[in-house]
Amino acid sequence: MPTVSIAAYVYGLVQGVGFRYSTQYRAMQLGLGGYARNRDDGSVEVIACGERQAVEQLVEWLKQGGPRSARVEKVFTEPHGKADYESFKIRY
After folding, report:
1. Which family is it part of (predicted)?
2. Active site includes 68?
3. Known catalytic residue: 20?
């Protein structure tokens, strides 16, 4: 299966509500590698690498609001350079 790598930038109430941890859990369920980290502007950056369908499922989950405690206002995605991540991590 071909793999893809994307960067997603998630805006809204997404820090301090367990968003990164929920994203990590969902990404691991989908067999994806990458990471999630808080950004200084209050958004969360998500890098996801893996099978196209699994990456698309994660992006759709992000757009639908992620965890219940979050309030996602918008999600921007863009291709990310070829990257191989063995697992999905939380970055600080």
Report:
1. Belongs to the acylphosphatase family.
2. no
3. yes
